[in-house]
Amino acid sequence: MLLDNISDFLNDCGYDLEQEIIRISGVINVNAFSTVKSEFQGRDCVRIVQCIYPWASLLAHSCVPNACWSIDNTKELRISIRAATTIKKGEIITIAYNLPETMSGTLHRLISTEDVAHFLCRCKRCSDKTELGTFASAIKCFDCENGYLLPESPTTPDSEWECCGCDSLQAVPKIVLFLNNIEETYENITRRQYSRDIEVKKLELLLRQTGDLLHENHYILQEFRMRIINLQIHSLDHVNETDLERFINHCKFMLKIADVLMPGFSKTRALLQFFLSQGLLRKVSRKTQDPEENEKEIADLYKEIHYLQTRALLYFNNQHSFSLRSEAESNQFAVCIKRQLKNLESYIN
Ligand SMILES: [Zn+2]
Ligand SMILES: [Zn+2]
């Protein structure tokens, strides 16, 4: 549309206008930081803004970033860059250009980064077909029983996928079609507006069925688990013991993967630490009502909850208010954790 609007004026410039506009869009996309800015001008007003910062725009991208960024809600839109992990002297400081994509698999991220920022990522996660040993994109082989299909050359989007257990080779379109069919089944469930309980039951069934087709750490299964966690967090007081245990296991499972792929100070880890602590709080409260329960096990649970909540609080307390909604969300988590920590201290000491 931009091209249509200005081509009449610039047709005689003597260079390839379309290519130039694509190049400029790429430069802006790769260097700009998008944020949601909330304002109150008689009514709530939300705008998406793209900001360019001379220094922060120099930061390199990685799909396993060692730093994170946030933009505050002041008029100046100040940016803060914070170390997410320990950064050694001389190590390149990296951030994720497209944060939501860090949950997905390499092929998905490659296509998305190329689309938005016009470059093919070659970070340590993208260059490793096992995605740092997580097997987050691995598919069970179509031809043998125990092998997994992985891309031969992970940073080449049209590379064939080979099995690590037999000599099976699969072309990318077949892999994409296979994954799209699973995603479509998932979307058919989430779009139907079932009640929370019914949707959780359907997703658990899909998780079991799809677990036979993909590696247990596959990013699509992580997406199912995250959806189940987000649905069940609202009804933890009413779920039965089996469902509570399953909720706790989903959180622990997701945290283990996030520890590798989104290490350190990240929103995903902070949320999972908070969600897991909520599941464990319900578990310990049920255990304390049973006189037969082991006191040591109960004390250990309190310690685990305390650890998770202090870690999550560290993240939420330090989040800049890049939008009013986000600030309110972070505050809400922080207030809830502080209240629960106060109660916990009497059990721990
Ligand atoms: Zn990458
Ligand atoms: Zn095989």
From TrEMBL:
SET domain span: 15-98
Pfam families according to UniProt: SET (PF00856)
Superkingdom per UniProt: Eukaryota
InterPro entries listed in its UniProt record: SET_dom (IPR001214), SET_dom_sf (IPR046341), SET_SmydA-8 (IPR053010), TPR-like_helical_dom_sf (IPR011990)
Gene Ontology terms for molecular function: N-methyltransferase activity; protein methyltransferase activity; S-adenosylmethionine-dependent methyltransferase activity
Entry protein name: Protein msta, isoform A
